[in-house]
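Data availability (excerpt). The following record was deposited with the supplementary files.
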Amino acid sequence: MGDTRFKIVVPFYNVEQFIAKTIKSVRLQDYKNYQCILVNDCSTDGSLEICLSLVGDDSHFIVANNEEKKCSLENIYCAIYDHTLDDEVVVILDGDDFFYGRDVLSYLNEIYTKEKCLLTYGSYLNLSTRNRGKFAKQIPVNIIQNNTFRNFQWCASHLRTFKSSLFKKIKKKDLCDDAANFFTIGGDLVIMFPMLEMASERSRYIDKILYIWNDMSDINDHKKDHPSQLRVESIMRGREKYERFDG
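Predicted structure:
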């Protein structure tokens, strides 16, 4: 079996109620070839202090502390460019969410080794109900083959993972608004549309539950500013699509 190197990127802001459980869900993984990058985005509560006390000198973890607020998408971008190699697999875990079970990384290692994929998206549980999330669906084959992701309903949901090399093929301008600033909301769509288009048949839907989405958190985009989230989605659906990456 292959030995995939994972980089888990955890951007967080004011998550002192949840971050300990988030870190615990990473530490409990039975697959240990990973490094977790925790990015504190100018929290005003005790989130950073909790992180530092829990992580200590554990070499599996890096704690980055922003001096200026960047928001999730820019934090992910900086973490990938600062801390990953092209052959590593990036795993996105929000600071108020959790891995589901101890075998998340070992399962992903099997997928990346056997399938030779560039990207995965998948299935999650809502924390409030423990029901499968409504966006956990497989993208139809005809949508993939015709490269019409931006015309299809959104379903490329948690858990999102991808090769660092694939992410780095996204043009920076396509992560930004018309004023050349990183989008501050809706970052999941912003990064996934280009990567799904480039990965094409080398993307994989994972039906197995790997993620718990904390839908009770007050910092979720749809609770903070759903109209802006919809505006970003409309912008991304109208932008030029990427061609398939054959590398």
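Summary of structural features: The CA atoms of residues 128 and 216 lie 6 Å apart.
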